[in-house]
Amino acid sequence: MKIFNSLLGILAIVISLVFYGCGGGGGSGGGSPSNANLLAVGKNTLVFAITSTAKLQTSVSGINFSITLLPGISVATANGLSGAIVPDSVQPGNGMVGKILIFGSYSIATRKVSLGMATTSGAFRSGEFLRLICNVAPNTKISLGDLQTLNSPVTIYKAVGYDSTAKTTVLLTDSLELLFDLAH
Fold first, then answer.
1. How many CA atoms lie within 13 A of 104 on its CB side?
2. Whole-number Å distance between alpha carbons of 114 and 60
3. Side-chain half-sphere exposure of 4, counting CA atoms within 13 A
4. CA–CA separation, 161 and 163 (whole Å)
5. For residue 167, with 0-12 CB atoms within 10 Å meaning exposed, 13-18 middle and 19 or more buried, which class applies?
6. Percent of the chain clearing pLDDT 90 (strictly above)
7. Can you tell me the distance from the alpha carbon of 172 to that of 184, in angstroms, rounded to the nearest whole number?
8. How much is the pTM?
9. Which of 57, 67, 102, 130 is deepest in the core (most CB within 10 A)?
């Protein structure tokens, strides 16, 4: 089992490196590495996914986490200030099936985005589960790497699953790792 988990970890790293090298390009000539993966001015979609770091007792039925945005990036809220994120800006990820609730809030003062997901699918254990649409202000140069570094590791407040046999909630927080990337 340790060999299998090690192979999965190596595979995850390889896939991350492949995706890290994608995007940003365009144009001719060798642009400087600091310009690689710059977020475009306007709308950008961040994709959040989880992977297990240990064998999960049950599927994931809820997760609550936060990230901090860099100056120049914002999220649309109902009143344009701090508060609930508008529904169009926080969406279920491509890995989700069944009934799902996605929610979030944003604080202008701290640039903190708090996000959450709850599902009744009973089958979600890893993969993409949430998408967040952010806005990058004009004359802002922020790379995906800068944003990932600021949020490394992503703070998972709580992740839970439901054990239908024992009819109890199982805490999964310490068994998950949360990653994010730009949608491609």
1. 29
2. 18
3. 4
4. 7
5. exposed
6. 67
7. 29
8. 0.78
9. 130
Tell me the CB-side half-sphere exposure of residue 36, using CA atoms within 13 A: 10
Sole residue written with tokens 């994931």: 60
* Tokens 């004359």 found at: 139
Q: Which residues pair with 159 in a beta bridge?
A: 63
Distance of alpha carbon 98 from alpha carbon 74, whole angstroms: 30
Is the distance from CB of 178 to CB of 153 less than 8 angstroms? yes
**Helix ranges (DSSP H) in 21-152:** 144-150
* CB neighbour class for 104 (10 Å; exposed up to 12, middle 13-18, buried from 19): buried
**Residues in Cβ contact with 57 at an 8 Å cutoff, skipping those fewer than 6 apart:** 161, 163, 170, 172
Within the chain, where are the H helices? 2-20, 144-150
Place of tokens 């945005």: 69
User: What are the structure tokens assigned to 35, written together?
Assistant: 């310009």
Residue 5 in this model has a pLDDT that exceeds 70: no
Q: Report how far apart the first and last C-alpha atoms of the chain are (Å, whole number).
A: 33
Mean pLDDT of the region 135-162: 95
What value does the mean pLDDT take over residues 50-67? Answer: 93
CB-based contact 95:117 (threshold 8 Å): no
